[in-house]
Amino acid sequence: MRHLSKRAPGSRAPGRRPPLTLAIPALLAVALLTLPLIGVLARTSWGDLGGHLTRPETTEALRLSLLVSFWALGLSLLLGVPLAWLLARVDFPGKAVVRSLVLLPMVLPPTVGGVALLLAFGRRGLLGPWLEDTFGLTLPFHTSGAVLAATFVAMPFLVISLEGALAGLRPRYEETAASLGASPLRVFFTVTLPMVAPGLAAGAALTWARALGEFGATITFAGNLPGTTQTLPLQVYLLLQEEPEAATSVSLLLLALAMAVLVALRGRWTGAPPRGGADRPSSPSRAAGPEPTEDTVDTPDAAAPSATGGEPGAPPERWALHADLTGFNQLTLDAEPGTTLAVVGPNGAGKTTLLRALLGLTPRAHAALRLGGTDVTSLPPHRRGVAWVPQDGALFPHLTALANTAYGPRAHGVRRAEARREAQRWLDQLGVGHLAHRKPAQVSGGQAQRVSLARALATRPRLLLLDEPLAALDQTTRSRVRHTLRTHLGGFGGVCLIVTHDPVEAVSLADRILVLDEGRAVQDSAPAEVARHPRSPWVARMLGSNAWPGTARDDGLALHGGGVLIVADPLSTGSEALAVIAPEAVSVHRERPAGSPRNVWPGTVREITASGSRLRVLIASERAPDLVAEITPQAAAELGLTDGTSVWTSVKATEVTVVPL
Ligand SMILES: Nc1ncnc2c1ncn2[C@@H]1O[C@H](COP(=O)(O)OP(=O)(O)OP(=O)(O)O)[C@@H](O)[C@H]1O
């Protein structure tokens, strides 16, 4: 499934040297960064190192440094994680200003930061007197002041790192979780946070390291009181004036701590993405740390309308669909319970927008939606009972197939053990029960599709939306999954909408085909009717027919593409119509045919492609639009057809179906 390149992207091709004008400054930069470190190592008095580091004032400063830096990390997580989420996910006025404010402490000289903190929280600052009078809290010359200073300078590292990770996580996973019934808070804790865990860990490590090394803001705001605000960096500064060897030893300790953090990060901060990063399925071996489960948040959303908890084989509840769409999509949809509707249309026709409007996920179109007897229009996505299977399934990569499938029932308040039993039953029904304990990265595309269908059905939705469910599968898997889909949609008591570009899928799975164009319904009929009387050239071509629009005149149809087509059906002169010619109705000859057909054109073979056991031949002509004929390989061989062969085509007037437009 995963493409493995032999050479890391961006690595140098063998034998190519980097230009010296770039290599020399780069080496100088490395030297500039390395020499001070070498200086510390060279000047360390190794014999006295133990003595310097075990002095009471040093161990006290170390204790204080750890205390202050971990408090600063805790505060940063508490405040910075929600801020990063807000910046990444919510559009609000002044967002750019807030982002600049977050960045400011990273570029501000720390001493200036300290002065600013004094002016805000100092004894004569804006909030200082109030803090003192109300809580008896004096931040300067107090450990809490050192914590505040360290948080001020370190929190931006967490916010920026996490915001980047969140921006890289496509919202599809979170939207799918909502469609399974999870509230926004539940989605945040069970999907968003686990999926950005590497970015969060990297940001947290950097934040801690920055807080540990904080000096300028602390000394300016909180002072340099041994045992209260004198952290290790402040002690280094003092020792440098009195005892340079001891200062070097303490510097080495700080250096070792900082290096340990960087080694642990292994380049995550600098953009080298970890394997199985935020938006990719996790690698099978990613098992470090407590595995997040679907049970992280245990608040059931009892108000959600979906009926969960029944047996997969139990008689389904019945939900009719009525939707009035406005905005980009303008149409009304009505469907009886159990109807499967294929939604087709050219690119940009509004298929995805239609699904997202039904989910309540887009401002581009609005759906007044009634499911069964309930009007769900004003409900948020997680309470509508509308389940969505996006194109690639969007299985949560950090959860097993079982936990993925139990996610919906859990979100609806079903107890853990029961939810897992139910999930197992759904997986069994879809023939993937044996994969229950595998992560999404460990199953094939077809198996993943079945798991995501099981996950959607396990929420007992009132409306099921499938976005190109078979698009990513190969032909063999496609027909197997199509069969599975047909079996399970047969027992589904709600309405199912399937977006597809595949005519076979549309005809074989759907009771009705809804053809969209520019957000409007061009046709909404049974597959046989759409095939017989397609109401747009696009849908006729999608179903494999030749479709020529034209204007009726006395002797036939004046084709928009040039030429005249003789038809058998009577036409009212001047009306617009679509002539539909099945490829099997087109005859191909090497000589001009004599006799009955009245539509005869000379042409040239442009392309021959296989279509099942027959061949489709594309023929271009100066006297008519391009025409597709379907013939047997034997006939093609007898006619000696290859690209560029000159031929004659003929179509009987009685074989032309005319659809008024
Ligand atoms: N976020 C968006 N902002 C602005 N326009 C958008 C946005 N998403 C889609 N559109 C536009 O809305 C129209 C409908 O898009 P939509 O994605 O619903 O089409 P579609 O039928 O699903 O197309 P496709 O078959 O290519 O997936 C298109 O013109 C598209 O360019």
UniProtKB/TrEMBL annotation:
It is found in: Cell membrane. Keywords: ATP-binding, Cell membrane, Membrane, Molybdenum, Nucleotide-binding, Transmembrane, Transmembrane helix, Transport. Residues 62-263 form the ABC transmembrane type-1 domain. The keyword Transferase does not apply. The chain crosses the membrane at residues 66-88, 100-121, 141-166, 187-209. SUPFAM superfamilies: MetI-like, MOP-like, P-loop containing nucleoside triphosphate hydrolases. Pfam families: ABC_tran (PF00005), BPD_transp_1 (PF00528), TOBE (PF03459). Residues 594-660 form the Mop domain. It is a multi-pass membrane protein. Its main location: membrane. Residues 271-318 are annotated as: Disordered. Residues 297-543 form the ABC transporter domain. CDD domains: TM_PBP2. The keyword Transmembrane applies. PANTHER family: MOLYBDENUM TRANSPORT SYSTEM PERMEASE PROTEIN MODB. Belongs to the binding-protein-dependent transport system permease family. CysTW subfamily. This is ABC transporter permease. It comes from Streptomyces gossypii.
